[in-house]
Specification:
By secondary structure, the protein is mainly alpha-helical. The chain has one domain: Orthogonal Bundle (Arc Repressor Mutant, subunit A), CATH 1.10.10.10. It contains seven helices and three strands; from the N terminus they run ααβααββααα. It has a three-stranded antiparallel beta sheet. A hairpin with a 5-residue loop joins β2 and β3. The longest helix has 13 residues. The chain is elongated and about 60 Å long.
């Protein structure tokens, strides 16, 4: 049995959110992190991913399944149960993701400064 996912496992100001290295889209990496410890049901994934609608999460899981990173398993009921888990290919992304997160944490201040400068009046976003 895997430990329950924490609702706040993804702090809105977490360095991983600042990482300029994106895997697929902004949610793929966090979904992979949610599946890191083992299979999860859809309802379990919704806890830390509460900012993602059910429809969008379903689409993201299908995309990750299509790309061979996530496997979907239907367990016959009653009650019928669906679980998602990382495939070996998906698991192979964990080490590079750790490296990217470490890099983002080490360059946190520089990333914040660059984003603030970009968004400030006179910054590149206002040209």
């Amino acid at each position: 049995m895997t430990e329950p996912l924490k609702p706040d496992m993804f702090d809105p100001v977490c360095p991983s959110g600042l990482s300029p290295i994106r895997l697929g889209d902004k949610w793929a990496g966090v979904i992979i992190r949610c599946l890191e410890q083992g299979p999860r049901r859809f309802s379990e994934l919704r806890i830390p991913l509460h900012a993602v609608t059910a429809k969008v999460l379903t689409g993201l899981l299908r995309t990750l399944e299509r790309d061979g990173l996530v496997a979907r398993t239907v367990h016959a009921g009653p009650p019928r149960r669906v679980e998602y888990e990382l495939t070996p290919l998906g698991r192979s992304l964990l080490a590079p993701m750790d490296t990217a997160c470490t890099w983002a944490a080490e360059h946190w201040d520089e990333l914040i400064d660059a984003r603030e400068a970009f968004s400030s009046p006179g910054g590149a976003a206002h040209r």
